[in-house]
């Protein structure tokens, strides 16, 4: 409790214990003369003056208290005027030492930054390892005699290299969210570079609205796109010399989303569907369920559209 001259009328035992005073030795002492003068802070004095005048109140004023022989303490002060009938008004002031809490926040923030750095390094290492595996698969495909084995090894190589590039795209950002338009376009560029011949007969492009999603959701969406695009390039255009187009599209719809991969290839009517049972089918089904979505297939005559419709 402080009087109109900021002299101490009374102090709690907890205040005295926290800052090293004896209760009977500080009564009547001016706040500015406590200790070695560490409480004599011009801004605090101005705030207390305004509080006593009734024009302001000190609410959560934070300051560093520096005392000889002690580590700086971070304290939060609150002060309000108390009026008594016929008596001089007083100021009640509370002081909270938040040093430990602020230190805990700084430690937490440092740990989060360290985790982000480690996660980026891990993502880079995973992507590099996948590219090494892809190279081994491609070399093996060139050496084997069986055309069927060579076909499976090349398919495995395409999947691994696409996932490796997907990982690298996610690793370049430390942000928690990913902008889908740029992300899908970069992913399609990577898949096209590894699977489409230079003759330009088949084009692959992506469209998306301005949606952003968490990085883990972007990873699942990217894996779905990779599987559907690879299947489209493999099955929709059996004659690779014919002109063709594959389009990836993502749109928010109410509280959900629609992700689709559409081609203008041979279509469902000729029995060459994108979604015939296999590893790719299982991957897309599992990822769609993980995102709370369902898989829909439509004959677009010509071509096929596979859509993932679900909650965002």
Find the structural class using helix and strand composition.
alpha+beta
The oligomeric status of these chains comes to: single chain
- Helical content stands at 40-55%
Q: Which consecutive residue ranges, at least 5 long each, have pLDDT under 50?
A: 270-276
In terms of DSSP E residues, the strand content is 15-25%
Largest sheet: 5 strands, mixed
Number of helices: 8
Mind explaining what this structure looks like?
The protein is an alpha+beta fold and 312 residues long. Among the domains are: 13-97, 2-Layer Sandwich (Beta-Lactamase), CATH 3.30.450; 196-312, Heat Shock Protein 90, CATH 3.30.565.10. It is 46% helix and 25% strand. The protein is built from 8 helices and 10 strands. The protein has helices at 13-19, 23-26, 42-53, 99-143, 147-171, 180-195, 215-235, 279-290, and strands at 58-65, 73-84, 87-97, 177-179, 202-208, 212-214, 244-253, 256-263, 293-299, 304-311. A 5-stranded mixed sheet has the order 5-7-8-10-9. It has a 3-stranded antiparallel sheet with strand order 1-2-3, with helices on both faces. It has a two-stranded antiparallel ribbon with strand order 4-6. A hairpin with a 2-residue loop joins strand 2 and strand 3. The longest helix has 45 residues, at 99-143. The chain starts with 12 loop residues before the first helix and ends with a strand. Mean pLDDT is 83; it is low at 270-276.
């Amino acid at each position: 409790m402080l009087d109109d001259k900021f002299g101490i009328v009374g102090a709690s035992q907890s205040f005295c214990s926290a800052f090293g005073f004896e209760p009977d030795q500080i009564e009547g002492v001016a706040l500015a003369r406590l200790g070695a003068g560490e409480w004599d802070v011009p801004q605090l004095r101005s705030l207390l003056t305004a509080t006593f005048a009734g024009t302001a109140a000190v609410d959560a004023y934070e300051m560093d208290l520096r005392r000889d022989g002690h580590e700086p303490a971070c304290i939060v002060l609150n002060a309000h005027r108390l009026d008594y009938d016929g008596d001089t008004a007083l100021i009640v002031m509370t002081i909270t030492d938040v040093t430990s809490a602020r230190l805990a926040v700084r430690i937490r923030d440092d740990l989060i930054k360290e985790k982000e750095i480690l996660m980026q390094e891990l993502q880079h290492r995973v992507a590099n390892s996948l590219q090494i595996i892809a190279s081994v698969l491609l070399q093996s495909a060139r050496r084997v005699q069986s055309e069927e084995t060579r076909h499976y090894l090349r398919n495995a190589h395409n999947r691994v290299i696409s996932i490796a590039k997907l990982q690298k795209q996610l690793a370049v950002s430390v942000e928690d969210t990913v902008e889908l338009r740029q992300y899908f376009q970069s992913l399609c560029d990577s898949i096209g570079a590894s699977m489409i011949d230079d003759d330009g007969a088949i084009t692959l492009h992506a469209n998306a609205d301005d949606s952003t999603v968490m990085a883990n959701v972007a990873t699942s969406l990217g894996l779905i796109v990779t599987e559907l695009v690879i299947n489209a390039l493999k099955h929709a255009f059996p004659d690779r010399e014919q002109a063709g187009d594959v389009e990836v599209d993502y749109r928010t719809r109410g509280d959900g989303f629609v992700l689709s991969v559409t081609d203008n290839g041979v279509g469902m009517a000729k029995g060459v569907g994108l979604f015939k049972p296999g590893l790719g089918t299982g991957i897309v089904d599992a990822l769609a369920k993980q995102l709370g979505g369902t898989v829909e297939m439509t004959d677009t005559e010509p071509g096929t559209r596979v859509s993932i419709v679900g909650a965002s």
